[in-house]
Design goal:
Largest sheet: 9 strands, mixed
Mean pLDDT: 95
Number of strands: 13
Low-confidence stretches: none
Distance between the termini: 65 Å
Shape: globular
Structural class: alpha/beta
Helix content: 40-55%
Number of helices: 18
């Protein structure tokens, strides 16, 4: 099996259902014998490039097809998308992209379409569409930047012309950031160890944060196996830092899986005190337990529970800190999760109601004179500022605090700090620090 064949098979699988990363992993596991690492990486690039550019690819192909892309046989549709993605967005020479696509057409039993695939790919690849070709902003976001109609409308409505810069930033490559496990090593020692494993390492914007260029998976190093770091984006690290966890504190992370923020807080606590890490999905609890075990964290305990409902066991003894990193629409991490591009945003009102309930519930567990952090990985104002504003209107015993840490380009919205990808060079993220002044 070739990388191109596997990529097309994954695209066919993706059309049925599923999260992109799980679909691709499943197809790679099915491959026997396994693809060499370089071929597997090439297959992944094709797969993700198609998902990231699908609307634009379909627009380009549609200019030269006799029927809509959606009406094509599924294998032919996937082959056309994959071939055009290679030629236009992956620097694969056009003859190679076309010839290999024709071979795939035959391999998938669609020989009658091989002439059409050849001709359409050559003509579509000659197009050089630009954002300015699409005069209407929502249409430009939907076609050129491959966003669903609801996502395009939301961004255009909330951010106006800036929405184009946000959408463009989702295509920008981001560095990998890691958090040093200070329970096991130091910044300098870990940097040296990683360089010894072939990584490029430079300091981050604050202590215990490193920027790393890994030659393979960030989880493939010996230092990772020793539990000396975990991968964590800058805004996520900042949210955990804003908690201000200290040794001996009692800390609650209400929506904890897969555990990055819990690890950062436990390390700040020097593994002294008590950290409870909650998760509503039972299947995700092992992720927390494995992370704690790998990193040598003993003060943390994972538990199952619905963060939006009061738990008498948690309420029995107040916490010094509570983190509410709530479930959200994920509109800030489109660059990492291309599935989110095509969300229909159905149920958004129910989602914001859930977020408000988690925030309200988390606040009820706090002792006076303590602190809560509310965070999301979305840039939808309805899930960010609006939720915090409504909470403060109902809770006079809480006040908004300015984070002690930030990043260049971060915006103070008046109800929290917003990280927009094109301004901060990070995922889109939101953090609000709320202090409880009295009981």
């Amino acid at each position: 099996m070739t990388a191109r064949y596997l990529a097309v098979r994954a695209l066919l699988h993706q059309e049925q259902a599923g999260y992109a990363n799980l679909v691709l992993d499943a197809e790679l596991r099915r491959c026997a014998p396994p693809l060499p690492a370089r071929e597997a990486a090439f297959a992944a690039r094709i797969f993700y490039t198609v998902l990231e550019r699908q609307h634009l690819l379909d627009w380009m192909l549609g200019r030269y097809l006799k029927k809509p892309v959606a009406k094509l046989d599924a294998p032919v549709r996937a082959i056309l998308r994959a071939g055009l993605a290679q030629a236009c967005f992956m620097a694969v020479p056009l003859p190679a992209a076309v010839n290999e696509s024709v071979k795939l057409t035959r391999a998938y039993g669609k020989s009658s379409a091989s002439g059409m695939v050849n001709a359409v790919l050559r003509r579509a690849a000659a197009l050089k569409p630009q954002a300015a070709d699409f005069k209407d902003l929502p249409g430009r976001l939907e076609i050129y930047y491959s966003l669903s109609t609801p996502v395009a409308a939301l961004l255009a409505g909330q951010y106006g012309a800036e929405a184009q810069d946000i959408a463009a930033a989702f295509y920008a490559p981001q560095p990998t950031w890691i958090r040093v496990n200070t329970l096991k090593t130091t910044d300098a020692a870990l940097a040296e160890a990683l360089r010894g494993e072939g990584c490029e390492v430079s300091p981050g914007p604050w202590p215990h944060c490193l920027r790393v260029g890994f030659p393979a998976s960030p989880a493939a190093t010996e230092a990772f196996a020793r539990g000396e770091y975990h991968v964590q984006g800058l805004p996520s690290q900042l949210a955990a830092e804003c908690i201000g966890a200290q040794p001996g504190m009692r800390v609650l992370d209400l929506c904890a899986a897969p555990g990055g923020k819990s690890l950062t807080m436990a390390e700040a606590m020097r593994d002294e005190g008590e950290l409870l890490a909650g998760e509503a999905v039972p299947a995700r609890l092992p992720l927390l337990e494995q992370a704690f075990a790998r990193c040598g964290v003993r003060c943390a305990r994972a538990f199952g529970g619905d963060a939006s409902r009061s738990d008498p066991a948690l309420a029995a003894r107040p916490f010094d800190r509570v983190l509410c990193d709530v479930p959200c629409s994920g509109l800030g991490v489109i660059g990492k999760k291309p599935d989110i591009r095509y969300k229909d945003l159905a149920g958004l009102d129910d989602l914001t109601a859930l977020q408000a309930a988690i925030l309200q519930n988390g606040a009820s567990y706090l002792a006076p004179g303590t602190r809560l952090v509310y965070s999301t990985c979305t840039i939808n104002r309805g899930e960010n500022e609006a939720v915090v504003r409504a909470f403060l209107e109902k809770e006079p015993n809480f006040v908004l605090e300015k984070p002690e840490m930030s990043l260049p380009g971060a915006q103070d919205t008046g109800f929290g700090t917003l990280f927009l990808p094109h301004r901060t060079g990070t995922d889109g993220f939101f953090v609000a620090v709320l202090a409880k002044t009295k009981g």
